[in-house]
Amino acid sequence: MLDSPELKPLTEQTSPTPGSGVTVVPVILSGGSGTRLWPMSRASFPKQLWPLLSEYSLLQETVARARQVSLASPIIVCNEEHRFLIAEQLREAGVEHARILLEPIGRNSAPAIAAAALLVAETDPGAVLWMMAADAAMTKPAALPAAMDLAVAGAERGMVVTFGMHPTRPETGYGYIETGAPVPGVPGLSQVKAFREKPGVKQAEEFIDSGDYLWNSGMFVFRADTLIREMEQHAPKVMEGVRASYAARASDLDFERLGADEFKRVPDISIDYAIAEKSAHVAVVPTDLGWSDVGSWDALWDISSKDSHGNVSIGDVLIEDSANCYVRSDKLLTAVAGVEDAVVVVTEDAVLVTHRDKAQDVKKVVDRLKREKRPEAAVHNRCYRPWGFYESLIQNDRFQVKRIVVQPGQKLSLQKHFHRAEHWVVVGGVALVTRDEDKVLVRENESIYLPQGCIHRMENPGKIPLTLIEVQTGSYLGEDDIVRIEDSYNRT
């Protein structure tokens, strides 16, 4: 695992703002699905929410890095499906007063950062925004404050500043930045001559040999008013649509929900295409942060701690006579023998085996699963909800057995089913169950029957997690056979 001293513990992170004294607002984009890290990363629980490199999730590590250079509360831009998961991970990280912007639909980085800029500009248009993805890693975070000082200095001069990573190999999975002349008055900051798409092997080698190219990290620093100005000039349709969506936003618990109809009409475009490749005011900070976008299993192997044979093993894993492998198992004992450069990932409902050189092709597997309408393409066996989670243990045509865990103080929606009955057996904690007009306290080793069509609700009034086994019986057991009558989390 990575050595991440700045993450221990997250709740004690304190740090100064950059030397210039300006406000730096971290803006963390958490909209990706990370399909190349399937079967762990899926749309329902993407890679940024997993602890892939330490005991903390990538999102939590990103928040910790933000605290190195800013005490301002972060803005998280995410989709609606992940809002409660992200709020809970922020709470675990000791982050208070975070602002969470909800996208009705993914529209790439340009609309997301435009919405965040409008939010900040309402109270402080001169604030500096630090835009970053929630799913990247840095193995050399000590170099970050100095790099941020340069970036902020450029942003204060009205520039859009990105971070360019010194390349260590001819990587074909990253975009590149061609550096230009130094920026006058800011030693260490360079103008951007051009952005380059992901190259082939030969061109990547040429980039490395020239010494004029950096990896494009996708991180940007700019003032809120600068971003709005540049967007209005170079991507007016994006800015127009985001303004309309922002004006139609609504507060929902701890979230700011952008107007759905307006946001769906916004063009789908990245900040690179919308602004960075068009603006004459783009600069780059060349630096070495040990950065990786953790975009594939091979990239994850590259930055993870290894044994003497170059193997990474996580979970209940046995490796014999093998070298340079990445082997990860959630539960099952996984044994690998006599192989080299292999990736083996085992989850509860799927197994991936591939050569490390073919790690980028995992996306093709996910695309095929989607075409075949396989649920494994997008959802895990364990499904997280704002109140806790559930997972299927046994499933058949006429019955299903689930394990349900409800966190203290939380409760499910008041609901009913048209096609199934349920039997609940409490195996840990205490459940307060609403069944039509009755309220029943069900303790450990006790059970309750909920006939088809009855109005019911489960809640945890205790101080420890409530765990129960649910047995469903009926002609149809799909999750869409739920009629919500009342819900604490404003779900429909």
Automatic annotation (TrEMBL):
Could you tell me which Gene3D superfamilies the record lists for this protein? Jelly Rolls (2.60.120.10), Spore Coat Polysaccharide Biosynthesis Protein SpsA, Chain A (3.90.550.10)
Q: Does the keyword Transcription apply?
A: no
Q: Which Pfam families match?
A: ManC_GMP_beta-helix (PF22640), MannoseP_isomer (PF01050), NTP_transferase (PF00483)
List residues of the Mannose-6-phosphate isomerase type II C-terminal domain: 374-487
GO MF annotation terms? GTP binding; isomerase activity; mannose-1-phosphate guanylyltransferase (GTP) activity
Keywords recorded for this protein, A-Z: GTP-binding, Isomerase, Nucleotide-binding, Nucleotidyltransferase, Transferase
Q: Where is the MannoseP isomerase/GMP-like beta-helix domain?
A: 321-369
Residue limits of the Nucleotidyl transferase domain?
26-307
User: For this protein, what is the EC number?
Assistant: 2.7.7.13
Q: Which InterPro entries match?
A: GMPP_N (IPR049577), Man1P_GuaTrfase/Man6P_Isoase (IPR006375), Man6P_isomerase-2_C (IPR001538), ManC/GMP-like_b-helix (IPR054566), Mannose-6P_isomerase_type2 (IPR051161), NTP_transferase_dom (IPR005835), Nucleotide-diphossugar_trans (IPR029044), RmlC-like_jellyroll (IPR014710)
A biological-process GO annotation: GDP-mannose biosynthetic process
Q: Is GTP-binding given among the entry's keywords?
A: yes
**Coiled-coil spans in chain:** none
Q: Which reaction does it catalyse?
A: alpha-D-mannose 1-phosphate + GTP + H(+) = GDP-alpha-D-mannose + diphosphate
Q: Where is the signal peptide?
A: none
Instruction: Say which domain of life the source belongs to.
Output: Bacteria
Q: Where is this region: Disordered?
A: 1-22
Family according to the record: Belongs to the mannose-6-phosphate isomerase type 2 family.
**How is this protein named in the record?**
mannose-1-phosphate guanylyltransferase
Q: Which organism is it from?
A: Acetobacter nitrogenifigens DSM 23921 = NBRC 105050
Q: What lineage does the source organism belong to?
A: Bacteria, Pseudomonadati, Pseudomonadota, Alphaproteobacteria, Acetobacterales
